[in-house]
Amino acid sequence: xGSALSAKPLASRAMTRIYDDVSIRWAAESRAATAANAGSRxxxxxxxxxxxxxxxxxxxxxxxRTAWCCAMAIALLACAACTGGxxxxxxxxxxxxxxxxxxFRGIDETSVATVRREIAARYAVDVEVLPERALPSTAYYEPxxxxxxxxxxxxxxxxxxxxxxxxxxxxxxxxxxTKGEIYDWGIFGLGSIGGRPCVVxxxxxxxxxxxASLIADRLAKITVHEVGHTFGLDHCPTTGCVMQDCAGSIKxxxxxxxxxxxxxxxxxxxxxxxxAGP
Length: 278
Description:
By secondary structure, the protein is of the alpha/beta class. It has helices at 3-6, 28-37, 63-84, 109-122, 149-156, 212-230, 250-255, 262-270; strands at 16-18, 22-24, 97-103, 125-129, 140-141, 146-148, 166-171, 175-179, 182-187, 189-192, 197-201. The protein has a single domain, classed as Collagenase (Catalytic Domain).
């Protein structure tokens, strides 16, 4: 029943999870390098796990120095306890979480409405659809004529969008990431585990003559999945759970009923991000 998943806290981790059997670590070093190279761009600092430091005395300690070292050690431990652990959703808020939907140019209104409806129905949040905008040129990968998912996440986690708790980008364009030795691997969606942004694409949902209702059903499931990642959920080993890794196949998505398993559901309810009731 996914005991490994239930043992993991709902944490903000510096990594991303791809809804297509792909796992990419958004390491602190790479985020820091991105921020350094971004110039004037508003790239957020990476969130990293804190480490408990140690206080070393390089000279033979006197009583006063020993007392000072003890005080510093206590201060460092207190700081680590307060800020070093994984960040969680606030226990008290003046209102519900705010989720912004960012429609990228070319996406149809029906798909945007599907994403908005599904988020509002599943999560206890306020949803706001922002004006349509162009895809960032910095994310475009010319050789394959598609957009890099990690670059899109960086864009969705910057600028005025940081006023929202979560940001969901939606596009009709193909998106991709690096998977193992394959530099450019097409995906359905990408989300930052415990972070702010995620992005979904309808490009790969229309294959093999899929009907409009089937495309909408797929989009709804992938949206719930990627937003679940931003709330700290990893891929779930429970068959049929909407957080299950699709293992590179749209058939896995079609085989899900779009609901969370009992473990994932309980974790989100404990975090207060699902509607009350069954």
